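User: two proteins, same treatment. go.

Assistant:
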Amino acid sequence: MSMRARAAACLLAGAALGAQASEPCGTLHSLATHGGSSTRYALAMPAGAKVPLTTLVLLAGGSGHVDLDERSACARALKGNSLLRSQPLFVAAGFATVVLDAPSDQHGEDGLAGFRSAPAHAQDLALLIAALRQRMGGGPVWLVGTSRGTISAANAAARLSPEAGPDGLVLSSALMAGQPGARKPWVAQSVFDLPLQAIRQPLLLIAHEGDSCPRSPPALMPRLAEQAVAAARVQQVLLRGGPGAAAGSDACEGRAPHGFVGQEAELVQAVRQFIVDATGQRAAP
């Protein structure tokens, strides 16, 4: 069976297994990473699921330090992030999900900060991908990043070999404009600082027409697509509508169009449909 056919079979089999995860936030695991650090992640699977299964590694924005609880494996920080809010819906769609925390040496105020674009961060994600493939019976592993998490996802996809890297990539509200001259140098970083032309996996770009965050202007999404010249498949999705920003919300946070507030189901459906299309199979009814 080809990689594409195997991926589609894993996805479609999982989609029929029902909406409830076996544990609310999954089970907590720890991985040895760079320089003697450790990185925790919460793995959730649909109830009754059997491997192999398509796994989505959800890379939150902001600091990236979601502060996973040792007992429940639930995030205690960044809970308003669009991917954390959508995680149960991804499970309901038949995916295994991984909520990834920041490495143990990146738990300060800035969290991952400039480490997101470092080669060592890409290698940490390679270790996670390898561990998940082993745990999940060889099933495909996709990286799904949002906001500043798109730097992490693109970094791994661009730097890692096809064997070590993810099977596909989803970038939502991609951080396409940095802030040159900021007090903290890493604030100037964007996905355009990475070798995007080296990305070979299928690539889905999702933005919201109403995103007014200066770091993720939807108008730059076509430029991002053009940079990924070697990607196996590129699709751009522009969501519209929704309730708009919640009262008092920052334009660059999750409770705004930047975070697809009120449109979590649309976000999940766009991701699911792209993965099905990228694997050459029709979606399950």
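Protein 2:
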Amino acid sequence: MESRNPRNGAPMPHAPRGSARAYYRLHRVLARNRAWEALAGYLESHSRAFQAFGAAEEWSKRELFGCRMCGQCALPLTGYVCPMNCPKQLRNGPCGGVRGDGGCEVYPELQCVWVLAYERTSTTGHLQDLSMLHRPIDQRRQGESSWVNFWRGRDEAQAAEAVPGALPPIRPSAKATGSL
């Protein structure tokens, strides 16, 4: 379940439930294709189905990954460790305060989410995913279904190869342009 500091509501590092290998396999099954795009379109045009789907996604991702429903899921690029559970919500790697034992700077008794991500990606052959550059979170997407956004192609520009001296092109979101 989502880990939050009871005093201030800030996120706390969360170790995901389940095997990263199993999640990578599941992600291949759920990869964007015409069928999933059609389902996403159906869901968006039927509010009750969309709400039920969103509630199921929120519950399952919260229980498995401590998901915060940012609508811009980075799980497939971080070994299925949610970077939004970093107390500093860092999406591009750890802060400078990771302890020698892998403990979080803010919560030393808990392992840094980026140490967990490194361990899970390196044991599954996905270590190169951690070199991807993640754009800052678009707060307007908070609470949206990241699966629907993925299937509809709204998150294609979320991360890009980090190329020295070059920035990947930025494409506005559908909400920002007024089209949905």
